[in-house]
Structures are given as structure tokens and as C-alpha cells.
Design goal:
Elements: H1 9-20, E1 31-33, H2 43-47, E2 50-52, H3 61-74, E3 88-93, H4 99-114, E4 118-123, H5 126-147, E5 152-155, H6 162-169, E6 174-179, H7 205-210, E7 215-219, H8 221-224, H9 227-233, E8 240-245, E9 256-260, H10 262-267, E10 273-282, E11 291-297, E12 304-312, E13 317-324, H11 330-333, E14 346-350, E15 355-358, E16 363-365, E17 369-370, H12 375-397, E18 405-410, E19 417-419, E20 425-427, H13 429-443, H14 453-460, E21 468-471, E22 473-474, E23 481-482, E24 486-488, E25 493-494, H15 497-505, E26 519-523, E27 535-540, H16 550-554, H17 576-582, E28 584-588, H18 593-607, H19 621-624, H20 626-638, E29 642-643, E30 646-647, H21 649-657, H22 670-678, E31 695-696, H23 702-705, H24 708-717, E32 719-725, H25 729-743, E33 750-758, H26 765-769, E34 774-783, H27 792-795, H28 800-808, H29 812-821, H30 824-827, H31 834-856, E35 857-865, E36 879-880, E37 885-887, E38 895-897, H32 901-912, E39 917-922, E40 940-944, E41 953-958, H33 969-986, E42 990-995, H34 998-1006
Parallel strand pairs: 3-8, 3-9, 4-6, 4-7, 5-6, 7-8, 10-28, 18-26, 18-27, 21-26, 27-28, 41-42
Antiparallel strand pairs: 1-2, 10-33, 11-12, 11-17, 12-13, 14-15, 15-16, 19-20, 22-23, 24-25, 29-30, 31-36, 32-35, 33-34, 37-38, 39-40, 40-41
Amino acid sequence: MKLQFRHQKFQADAATAVCDVFAGQPFQAPTYRIDPGLGQIDLYDARQFTGFNNAPVAIGDDKVLEHIRAIQRAGQIKPSDALDGRYNLTVEMETGVGKTYTYIKTMYELNKRYGWSKFIIVVPSVAIREGVYKSFQMTEEHFAEDYGKKIRYFIYNSAQLTEIDRFASDSAINVMIINSQAFNARGKNARRIYMKLDEFRSRRPIDILAKTNPILIIDEPQSVEGAATKERLKEFTPLVTLRYSATHRADSVYNMIYRLDALEAYNKRLVKKIAVKGISVSGSTATEGYVYVQSINLSKGNPTATIEFDVKGNSGPRKVARIVGEGYSLFANSGELAEYKDGYTVQRIDGRDSSVEFTNGKKLFAGDVIGSVSEEQLRRIQIRETVLSHIERERQLFSKGIKVLSLFFIDEVAKYKQYDAHGNATGGTYAQIFEEEYNAVIGSMQLSLEDSADYLKYLEGIPVERTHAGYFSVDKKSGRMIDSKLGDKKERTSDDVDAYDLIMKDKERLLDRREPVRFLFSHSALREGWDNPNVFQICTLKQSGSDVRKRQEVGRGLRLAVNQGGERMDENVLSRDEIHNVNVLTVIANESYDSFAKGLQSELAEAVADRPRKVEAKLFDEKFGEDTALAIYESLIENGYVKRGELTEKYYEAKKNGTLEMPEEAAERVAEVIAVLDSVYDPNANKPENARKNTIDVTLDKDKMNSRAFQELWSRINGRSYYTVAFDEDELVKKSVAALNARLRVSRIYVKVEKGEQVATIESKAQAQAGESFARADMTREEAASYTAMKASNSVRYDLVGKIVAETGLTRKAVAAILVSIEKGVFNQFPDNPEEFIIRAANIINEQKATAIIERITYDKLTSAFSTDIFTAPGLKKGALGVNAMEAKRHLYDYVIYDSTNERDFAAQLEAHSQEVEVYVKLPKGFYISTPVGKYNPDWAIAFHEGKVKHIYFVAETKGDMSSLELREIEKAKAHCAREHFRAISGEKVRYDVVDSYERLWELVQG
């Protein structure tokens, strides 16, 4: 099969944008004498030293800048303030839309208009270098038909230096492709490109290249241009530097002249729609010491590690990620989960091999996970879901002549291919799982009316062992597949030319239906080599790591598919609605749907440029008022300065000449109007202030603390007490057993597969930022059968009775009596999920205990009391105005830090009733009442003006909903304990109650 190339407007527009920057430049093809170097040269050789170089830019810098700004305004790009060097231009193009095609076309156009013929393409990796070279091969005939000439292109090789002489001496368009590592080194690692070489007539290759005054094209500059590389690039003495990428770094965008970002490419149907199948485990047994090493973090100080582990939650264990250092104890930081008791303290973090070692001897490497659902089960589900998606897509597209491919990335060849002692190859774990799952899916496939006889014949004609193949590095001696060596450890990519060559060579063959291979397994380090347009499923069979970004993962399959005739499935072949029905890339993620979709949308929003705001009347409201704003807006339209909400060239011309016409109301304020209009390119202009920036530190008002009112209040509430409970233990055991039998249900462990896809149109960057550019479609659950083997007795010893005693405060005898009396089926839930069993059982017992307490608790006053030191203790919460803090005049502190909108509203009412309230305080955590169901910290202490109310001193708990059904038994018990406590320490002088508003409080203090 041969891919067909069509002319696409956006690619022509990008090429035109570059060329128009130099409008007015004369067509020239100057020659010069190439440095011949040392040695004898005959007459024929002398002719070979006539060189052709790029003529210098003949138009002035002011003209170039004027052109750039006009191009930017037409493309809705913020105009450059000044020229960034002579001459740097930036083009942004989304992955998968034909970036390489575009800059090849740009070379032809620059040559056609100005005679420029020398180009050097700088790439960051071997993978991209080989991909660029393949693009030149594939488009050669296409461009030759368009322009009547061919480009001479080659990959720089320091062992083939005659190519550089030919580059300089050939009058045709010449392109050298070079990866940055070939010239970016000094000292003992100095590259040959800088050396005077005997075989190159004692010349330096860099000098010969620099004399051609080449145009540099930097492919993926964010990966190429470090500080050192930028300096090295200057040695090429480029005429112009063009930068092409989908993800430019914000600090390295120089004179952006064309932009086709992710949002625009998607909405214009130039790339595939993305669907996600997320796979996650719901629940955790907390029996196997779950630890996932996300990454090793290197900096100037000691290395740290980002580790995910279980922590104790209110209703069971939950997973959290923490950045940890040596000495970090998972046991202490998990809420003392028993699974981490045996030696889970970080002993060593080694940045050299990216490992973490614990004091129990366990050593994990970045990406390793232990104690989860067996990895094999999760990978099996991923492979099955990939096969299911593949067959679904294949059935849909077969009649359109489109071959469907699925791509698996793995991190170890042995998981796909293994070799015995004699070198005979056998399938690894993943190959075996794939064949089992593929046969199961095909065997259970329900025939559909849409399934043609030809499709069924196609399926039957492909044996399972021939429909998958591995693309890996190959050992030249043994011929065995081997793990790819990392050439770039930061990007985790390989420099294996042969492996990329095999991928590129097979690119078109794999698109042909006569080739049975439909499922491809490749090493994750080779991912940059893959950009086959008919990859419809991508599945990464390894634990998610922070080293690969989501857009990098999906980028391998974004290109629009082609049919058996090599035609791209775009708007030339399909209707607009059909394009994203046919072209859907499904990512079978190794994490939850929410996690992947959220991460991908966040990266998408990060990469999408801010659009200029529309020019509307309301733009001027704040500065000029509504009436004048409307007059200005109407004037801008009447004078042709604004069209369809965008500023026109007529406006910029009038602004430049100082001839802007304004309505009478704004005639004296032209500069202010211009300032508002200039702000349309500033994404931060007119944004509401970020309330989270208004952080405040709470300060104690010592005058209020020393006031008579507060001292009187404090003296009445600061007493401590102790309690006694005389409930019937046998009765409590009986009620607890009944409640546990009725309500104790420990959640089962499931593997959950959720699917969602991008919405039809992504309206804005804000939509992606808000996580609204994906829509969830459906969800299936599968019970994690492998957990049945995970009994607590296998690896973690539990003192079940002791744990519940610690949580409830009951005697061991009472707890044992409860446990032996509950139904067998209820108790048998314990081995599957011990931690959740303990937490839920203790909660239910505590609720029964709370009911008994209300009836039989008594409090007595102690001689000790709380000190006012609790009001100055370290760790008082900071706040942010408008977020969780408000200014206060009657409060003991200058601000009230609130935990809910209900607390905020209550404090605002206390402030508003200053004629009634003399002083109040949101009580700190250091003030508490001991209860049988845990320490209780009331919300507020309030002192009213004498003579206004019956009860001057009041302690209040605020609740949003006062329904007794809504107040849980334990909360009701705590409130009852508080009433008894205050009655014991102050008699009737202090009133305590639970209120939902200031009005309810006022009723209580009056009565």
C-alpha cells in the first residue's frame, strides 16, 4: 500500500505564514567558494568547491516585524512586542496533523519565492530523526509532482563527511537531518562536527555548514533547546530559525506566526476523537502491605520518593500518595495499619537505580507495585478490553476498507517473548494471555446483522498466533528480541536505529489487510517511533508513572486513519459528522477513568493557547460606564475597527498613525480606549481576583481576652470533668450483636472498567480545565477473584479483639462476647477485608454504646481547668479571605476561620448583632470534653451583654440540619455529654445546646 497525500488548507496556511514574514525579499541564488582545506586539488575538484548558500534577508527589521504582527493578528495570536532575534519564528501544530509534511512544504515555498535552498532539521532523538527521514521518503513523489523538483536529504553521519561537501556545493534544495546529541558536547566528549579532521582536508564540518547560511528547523524545541544547545545552535549561523511543536515551552515562544493547537485541531476534525477505558480496583483488603513507588525525585538535596500506600479512613482503608524521605514510616503515617507494622520504614532511596529499600529488606523500583490485586489479573483485563474494543471498531470499519490496529506498550520483552537454553522462542506471559483472551472474545462473539460474510471470512482466515507481533530491539549476535536501552533517561526513550527502522519499514505493510498482524507489542522506550495512522487502540501494560505524560501516550494514535487505497479518512472522503464516528482512538488506561481523563484534560488545557477575547460593549463598562461603553463599541464598528468581535487591520493602521476616531463621549480618553483594546490578548485582564491569594494569619486580640466579659465567660467554661457510665454490659452486647448482624457489610473488592470519550466540540480552554471536555459513557464491574487467596493469616497477624477494644473502649470480654455471637456469614467477611471490618464494626458498636450512654452517664467536676494557653498554641489555622476566613470585630481573634458556609453565616450573624453579643470565640481544638465516644470539641463560646438575655454565657454547636434523624447517634451522645459536663462544672450559669441559626440561639438565651 502507498499512502496518498492531499493538499490541505491548514498546511498551506502555515507555510504561507512563514513565507509572508519576508515578503519583499528578492529571489536570489548566490554562490561562494567553499573552503577546500589542505592538500592538492586538480581543476575538476576545484569546480566542486563552488558553493550555493542562502542569500541574507534584504528587507529591514522594522518591515519584518510589521509583517509578523499582521500575520499574528490575522491568526488571532498576540502580536509580538519586538523581534526575538534575527530571525526566530514559531509554529504550533498539534500532534498527528502532519507537522513534518508542513515544514517540507514550507521549504519548497521558501525556495520558490526567495531561492533559499539550504535547510538543517534538528531533532531531539533518534526516533524522531528516523521518522522525519521516513516522511521525506514517503512524500518525495508527491512534492515532486507539485514543484517539479526533488529535495536532496540525508542524515548527518560523522563517518560520511562527503555528504557535507555535497550539501554546500549542490544548487538544489538540500536538507540535512541531525539529532542534537551529534553536536551538543564539549571537552573529552567533543563531537567530530567541531574537529579539524584529516579525512575532511583538515576542516571542521561545522564551518562548512555555517557558510551556507542555513535555515534551521527545530523539531520539538522543548526537547532540543537546553541552555547549552541554544549556544551550540548559534554556530550554524542560521539565516532563520523555525521552531515546530505541539507543546512549546512558554518561555521559548519566539514570534509565533501560526497556531493549530489541540483544541482547534480536534474541533476541525483533523485528529481522532479520544475515548478512554479506565481500569481501577475499588476497595482494599489492607492485608498485603500495598506500596506503589510512583517516582524517585532528584534535586539538589537528598533524593525523595513519591509513594502510594493505604491509610486508615473513616469507613475503610484508602490510598494516598506522599513524597517521602529516608526514615519515613508507613506504619505511623497510615494510622498504624497492621499491614505496615513489619519493617515498612524507608531505609534508603537510591537515585542511581531509582529504587526504594525498606528496613524489612524489600526493595522496589520506580513503577513497582506490591500488595494490590495481582498485576497479572489487571493486565489480563486490559488485554481483554483492548481486544473487545478492537473487534468492535473492526466490525464497524471493515466495510469502509479500513484495517484496525491495536498497540500494546510493555516494559520488558520477556513478558512477550522468552527463549529457552537452545535459543528457541516461546510466548511470554502477555502473549499467552493475549491468545487466550482473543480466542475467548472471538469464540463468544454474538453475530450481528451488520457482520458481512467477508468480515467473518477475514476473521476465520487469521490464526491467533499470526495476528500479533513484537517490535523490539534485536541483539545482532543472537537475533533475539531484547529490552531497549535508554538513550535519553529523562524522556525514557531508546536510540536503537534498527528497531525504529523496522517500525518505519513496516508502517505501510501493516496497513494492508493482506498482512495478518493486527495487534502490535512494542517496548515503551520505542513509543516515539510509532505514528501509524490506523492505530485505534493503545494499551500500556505497566503501572502508570509520572515520567510519561498523557498527551504523549495518546499522541501515538492521533492521526486520521487511511483505507486500503491509502486515502485519509478526512472531510474529503467523509461528512463532518462521520469523521469522529470513524476516527476514534481508545486508550485502555492502566489507571482509573477519572484519573486518566482528568490528567489528559489538564494537560490539554495547559497546552491550549488563550484566545483573544471578543470586543464587546461590556469590555468598556468598568472604565467608562455602560452608556459610554456602548457609544465606544458602536463607533468601533461604524469606523471599521471591529468586525465580528475582532480588531481589524484598519484599527491597527489608525492606531499607528494616531488617527483613531472616537465618539464625543470618549474623545478625550483615546489612550484609555486603546489600553482596553490592547488587553484583549491578556488572558488575565478583567479576571476576578483570586480569593485564595488573600491569605491571612489569625491574631489574638489580647484586649478582648483580658476584658471582663471574656474572663467571666472563660471562668465559667474552662473547668474539666470526669464521667462514669453505669450501663448494662450484657444489654450492650445483645444490642451490638443485633446491629452488626443487620448492618455490618464489608465492601467487596472489584475491578471496575469505566469508559468515556471527548465531547463532540470542545468550546474553550476553560471547558478542559473544568474537566468537562470528556463525557462518561458506561461502567462494568468484575469481582477480583484473586483476592480470595488474600487471607489475613497469610502475611499479617491481627489482634482482632484488641483492635476493636482500642476503637470502642469496651472490655476484651465484652468484645469477645460480641464477636462469637454474630452470625457466621457476617464474621466470615473479616479475612477478606480486615481493616474495613474492624472500622465498620467498631462504628456500629460505638453507636449502640452511644444510645446507652445518653441514658446512664454522669459527670463530676475536677479541680483542674483549661489554661488560656490553648488560644496561643502553635498550629492555629491560616485562612484565605472569602474562602474560609472572614474579618471580625466581636471575635477573640481578628478573623474567624470557618469550616462550612453554615459556620460562616452564623459568625456573620453574631457580628451583625453587636448590640446583643459582647464577645465570642470559635473554640480551638485544644478545648474539649471527654466522652465515652471520643473527645468532643464544641464550636462556639458566646457572652451576651448583661440585661439583654436570661442566659449570658452560652456554648453552641452549629449544625446545618436539626432533624434528629440526621444527627447520628454518636453526635447526639456527644451533645448529651456536653450538656451534662457544663451542668456539672457551672450549674445553670452556662447554657449549652445545638443550634442551626442565630435566631434559634436567641430563642434559647431568652428562655
